[in-house]
Amino acid sequence: MKLEKISNNVLYAVCAVIVLVFILFFTVGHDQYDEKGNVAPAMTDVLLCLQYLLGLFTLCLMGWSLVKGAMSSGGNDEKTTTGVPGKMIVFVTAIITLLSWVVGFVLNLGEEPVVKNNDVLASSTMVTVTDAFMFSIYVLALVSVVAVVVSATGIMTKTATKR
User: Fold this and answer.
1) How far apart are the first and last CA of the chain?
2) What pLDDT, in 10s, does the model give residues 145-158?
3) Are the CB atoms for 139 and 105 separated by under 8 Å?
4) Can you give the pTM of this predicted structure?
5) What is the three-state SS of the chain?
């Protein structure tokens, strides 16, 4: 089996599991309540476990990709089809990620804790951390969309014809 075919099959399997778990989460057991009167869907634990597994899977793949990329380049700074060195792309991505985290933390300092029925559900620190990472996700999603649009236009490639 080719590596690309294995990759596609794994992607389809992971997407199918995600869709199945979300369908189950949104359709099964929403009439259940915990001792405090909060809605407690039956599939909450399954959804949380899936999220933790996907996060761990992503971190493992990221580590494997970094090691494999470092070993395959042999320290050479190979250029991509756009003419931009691969290490520059990694560096800029890391800087954008770190800056978005810092800006997210600064913008969300002093958040109030989440309280329901006189019970603290999330401390102000966790609200700040969550909001900072959400801000980072929005920034990185926007950067990704811009990168895809620029890549699709072909302006950055060496082989792009001038119009």
Assistant:
1) 42
2) 888 888 778 776 65
3) no
4) 0.52
5) CCHHHHHHHHHHHHHHHHHHHHHHHHHCCCCCECCCCCECCCCHHHHHHHHHHHHHHHHHHHHHHHHHHHHHHCCCCCECCCCCEHHHHHHHHHHHHHHHHHHHHHHCCCCCCEEECCEEEECHHHHHHHHHHHHHHHHHHHHHHHHHHHHHHCCCCCCCCCC
Contact (CB, 8 A) for 65 and 56:
no
Q: Which two tokens stand for residue 38?
A: 């909060």
Neighbours of 112 (CB within 10 A): 8
Strand partners, 122: 114
pLDDT cut 70: percent of the chain above it: 85
Rounded-to-integer distance, Cα 130 and Cα 151, Å:
31
